[in-house]
């Protein structure tokens, strides 16, 4: 009898051995871009519910000082609580990155844990980058492994995020491959996060990323100190896939390790809404510009989507919170139609109060599209069907939403986005935002990452 | 259309409204007994792997002082980290309590969280007792609700423990029913814990209870501060049962609230092994005493068990760690046969090294028994079939393992057990153990629980 292939072991060996000098320059540069995008997303949450509550709990339960920065407050704590608060912060305004085929938001779970551990351990920018890449490469493959069935009930960023954070922190701790397996075991057995909160517009999305980053970090530190974990937490008979997936494919765990850089496939978010709304939003914007349509010219819109969009967005008819509005296809398309964009300001100032947006929302419905669904999650195709008031039926199609790897944001666009995010909450002055940007663009040369500010 | 019954809401209303003066005297007394049994279980883990590693992480990531006691070290920290370490400690030596039909170990997740919060909030012994009862009543019903399918893959004490801890702490925080629903939502979406670690004898069992107690506590504190959670985390379409059970029965969530005291159904552990081994161990001991058999008279033993025992115990053939030995039916029956008991000392000193135990282990096998399986998990029937060297086939049967509600431990036996546990690790002197026992027997009158020692 042949022993079953040890997928968890193979993945652990790769990430435990990953060195900065193995990374292609494009991967280093993209990691800096993702890091800036992440830090700005965290800053944008300053003062917004429920982030002050998370800060309060960390103050009450964590140390009053420490090596790791809490970005929204610029206070310091232990690595555990800094990771916890920063992860909650960076997943609030729906501006953090997304990897398509894994449906994982890697930045919001990998970077908070990696930055906190790097600050705790006195690591360099290059070491932070290599560890973050390890977290992305592992997390993306684990998300792909767990498949679409997992995402129907579980918030992949929450569950897989725990493992991705553990890998990044484990790399900073120089875990051996055997210790990395233990870290994955301890992380995987703490992996949690259900979509149920979404229908109530509850605050769990931030709790999910906080939970993932902090407990993933703990799993790696515990592994370093000799705590063991399951050896096959991913593919074992009572492991993660056995409990939480019905279409898991273990081959995805080790897909082209070292030659495919999955981090490069990560998308930046352009609109401030759930990523599932972006393909239709871009397709509608493109169609309206092409045809010279105004919102008032439109009688009805069918957004032709994949099943996952219906699962995630379908729970809410009329949003009552800004956060819920970001998961409302009708509201997002309404902002696009009326304002030409769906940014943080549009959501805050108009998503719930502008009657034109509400009127447009009532004209929108989603329909499952076989072509779109078949391409998902590898490709996120945008397809809309618009009926005009004068009786025409028009079709919009866009194959790569703005921010996708094939339709990327430039460094100038990323800088602009980062400045807007920092400005939105007042978390950093223009000068501080500029300094942060400059620091991140030279992250690979930084001997220390002890202070982002 | 009628709205579906709001089970989570009903359960939350009951536990949020539970007052000490509603509790029957027997419930108060039993809670004290369970609390002593729990505290002694925690003390017994002092110095044993991986508890020093947990203490080290809490020291590194938590505050250097605080309101809440860490029992094994008699240091203090925040409520979060005290709950984390005490929960890990109390689930190590396999002496903590078990509720049969939910297959939940309530003490190891409820008491660490409740004690830490009570110390943080300056609560009385009566308030601690009422909160703990709330945690037991909710946790047991949630465990029953999730059913046997859940327990096949998930460690119910880990998953349900998060909610049970949140309820106990939520009661101490005087959460309103609406806040209690939020606490359940935040706890349930962090619920995690897979059995996969068992086949590798990994350290996750302690991590599971630590994770449950600390994150359950966090869920309640966050709810108090205004953080919301899913309103139907238990029974919702993307909730706990949807993701982690295929035989969930929502009616169990609200089963005779206020008239059935499920806490009274909790069993004390007599042997130091996995509870799934106890029915067969007691049946074998009974048979050997009845027939005057020695271990050397026995050629073969068939332990007739329920499926859950095979699922949990079947992964390991020959244990290599003491902890694994506690999950080895053959080893447990070997200790019973050779030493007449399977206590902490027998496991530490003989389970892995005594060739007579190893020889007996090789004679034991498990077989699924329809009667035993049909009664489980409500009743844990002990059935063994012994073949003697002189060719006889003998049957042993015992319907209530020692420690079950129908075959309980007296206060004198509980005191003796507590003293043995404290002595085992040297965590408390005989005088300190006596003082602890006296303090617990008057817990219901204590105006403060700030210090157990």
Automatic annotation (TrEMBL), chains A, B:
GO molecular function: lyase activity
Protein name as annotated: 2-methylcitrate dehydratase
MmgE/PrpD C-terminal domain location: 271-442
InterPro entries per record: MmgE/PrpD_sf, MmgE/PrpD_sf_1, MmgE/PrpD_sf_2, MmgE_PrpD, MmgE_PrpD_C, MmgE_PrpD_N
Pfam assignment, any one: MmgE_PrpD_N
Source organism phylogeny: Bacteria, Pseudomonadati, Pseudomonadota, Betaproteobacteria, Rhodocyclales
Family according to the record: Belongs to the PrpD family.
Residue ranges annotated for the MmgE/PrpD N-terminal domain, each copy included: 9-251
């Amino acid at each position: 009898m042949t022993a079953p292939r040890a997928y968890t072991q193979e993945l652990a060996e790769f990430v435990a051995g990953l060195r900065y000098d193995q990374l292609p320059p494009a991967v280093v540069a993209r990691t800096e871009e993702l890091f800036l995008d992440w830090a700005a997303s965290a800053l944008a949450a300053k003062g917004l519910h429920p982030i002050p509550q998370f800060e309060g709990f960390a103050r009450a339960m964590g140390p009053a000082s420490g090596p790791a920065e809490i970005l929204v407050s610029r206070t310091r704590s232990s690595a555990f609580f800094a990771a916890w608060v920063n992860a909650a912060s960076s997943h609030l305004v729906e501006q953090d990155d997304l990897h398509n085929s894994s449906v994982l938001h890697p930045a919001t779970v990998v970077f908070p844990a990696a930055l906190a551990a790097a600050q705790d351990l006195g690591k360099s920018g290059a070491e932070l980058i290599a560890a973050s890449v390890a977290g992305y490469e592992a997390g993306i493959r684990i998300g792909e492994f767990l498949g679409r069935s997992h995402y129907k009930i579980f918030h992949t960023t929450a569950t897989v995020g725990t493992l991705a954070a553990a890998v990044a922190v484990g790399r900073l701790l120089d875990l051996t491959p055997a210790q990395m397996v233990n870290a994955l075991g301890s992380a995987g057995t703490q992996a949690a996060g259900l979509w149920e909160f979404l229908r109530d517009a509850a605050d769990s999305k931030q709790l999910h990323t906080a939970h993932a980053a902090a407990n993933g970090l703990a799993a790696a530190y515990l592994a370093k100190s000799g705590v063991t974990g399951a050896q096959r937490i991913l593919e074992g008979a009572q492991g993660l896939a056995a409990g939480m997936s019905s279409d898991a494919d273990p081959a995805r765990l080790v897909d082209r390790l070292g030659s495919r850089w999955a981090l490069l496939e990560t998308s930046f978010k352009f609109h401030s809404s759930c990523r599932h709304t972006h393909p239709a939003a871009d397709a509608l914007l493109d169609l309206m510009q092409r045809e010279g349509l105004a919102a008032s010219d439109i009688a009805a819109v069918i957004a032709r989507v994949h099943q996952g969009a219906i699962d995630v967005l379908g729970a809410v008819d009329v949003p009552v919170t800004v956060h819920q509005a970001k998961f409302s296809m009708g509201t997002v398309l309404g902002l696009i139609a009326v304002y030409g964009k769906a940014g943080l300001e549009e959501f805050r100032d108009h998503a719930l109060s502008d009657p034109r947006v509400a009127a447009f929302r009532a004209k929108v419905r989603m329909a499952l599209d076989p072509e779109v669904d078949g391409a998902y999650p590898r490709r996120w195709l945008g397809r809309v069907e618009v009926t005009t008031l004068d009786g025409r039926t028009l079709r919009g199609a866009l194959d790569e939403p703005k921010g996708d790897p094939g339709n990327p944001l430039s460094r100038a666009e990323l800088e602009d986005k980062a400045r807007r995010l920092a400005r939105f909450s007042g978390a950093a002055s223009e000068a501080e935002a500029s300094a942060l940007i400059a620091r991140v663009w030279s992250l690979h040369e930084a001997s220390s990452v002890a202070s982002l500010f």
